[in-house]
Amino acid sequence: MQNLQNIPRRSPSGRRTARAGALVFLVVGIGILLVMVRDVSLGDLCRVANQVDVGILAVAVVAGLAMTGLRTIRFYRFFPAPGRRLELYASFAMFRFLNFLLPFRSGEITFLALLSKFEFAGSIAGIAPVWVLLRVTDLLALSLLFFCANSLVPLAPHFDVLQWGLFGLSTVLLAGVLMFSAWMARANPTFSDTWLGRHARAAHAGFARFDGWRSCLHSLFLGCLIWGTMAVLNTLMQMAFGSPLTVAQCAAVGVAAAVISILPIHGPIAVGTSDVSWAGLMVLAGMPASEAIATTLCVRVGLVSIILLDGAIGIVILWLCRCRQRKPDEPRLREPQ
Asked: Which end of the chain has a smaller Cβ tally under 10 Å, C or N?
């Protein structure tokens, strides 16, 4: 594995600005969390935590880890890495942890740099077209799940506008990506040997990995599986902590929470913003506010634990792969007596 010193870094002023923005959002998130916690007693929190169903929680953990496996399979379709499947899985486990840790989903860019440096793909410019396709099909898969959940259990009247807006936006974006890909394949432009030309050539090679509608349908199918698994995870987490909502209501809350999770509005570790969205969705589903906050905090601990477990598994796998790739030391010659 290559070291990470060659990953492009921001300028000092850019790093200071990013850190200041992350710190502001972290402080705001902590403030939101403290305001929420004021409305729930320690007894309510302990009561929700004590009624946890270990069996349902175990199934939720399996579903949470399965998401990383599905993401790995989907990426492998475009960038095969024979003999390095476990290492690729570990990289996606780290990607999940980075997106949780870093603000505004900035873990995406960091992860693309890691994929390039670990030689799973070429440059970031070469990965970007495929990554855009994956993200657009993610949005379409989420819009389809949200449409189904909101049709079965409408949480709020204005969610109808949101579901159609998501579906329309994702459809337009997907059509645009496929049309641009087809144009790039037909145009077959020549590129100069400059910095911009080399990156444009890498992006053109990335678009060449598209296989028309087949690659789109493959990505959309696995995207539906990924986000469907996320909805199952969110539903099981609520049920594990004894949510009084019905299974359908828990599923509707879980899908809506998944939709909110992809928005770049969260600070570091999504503190505050994620919690208030979960609690608000539960209240919309009919749960009392104090119970919704207590359940949200317990669900939050469960989801964070899965992310940390996934990241720990990824670190162990990467460490083992690195140890395996090291060459054995050359035998030392004995010094004469």
From this structure: C
Under 8 Å between Cβ of 315 and 90 = yes
Determine the structural domain holding residue 239 and report its residue range.
44-325
Largest interatomic CA distance in the chain: 89
Residue 239 lies in a domain: yes
| Residues 240-294 pLDDT 10s | 999 999 999 999 999 999 888 887 766 667 776 788 888 889 999 989 888 888 9
Q: For residues 290 and 106, what is the distance between their CA atoms, to the nearest angstrom?
A: 33
Q: Are the CB atoms for 273 and 265 separated by under 8 Å?
A: yes
| 333 within a domain of the structure (yes/no) | no
Q: Residue type at 34?
A: L
Task: In whole angstroms, give the CA distance from residue 296 to residue 275.
Answer: 6
- Report the distance separating Cα 321 and Cα 301, nearest Å: 30
- Cβ atoms of 150 and 159 closer than 8 Å: yes
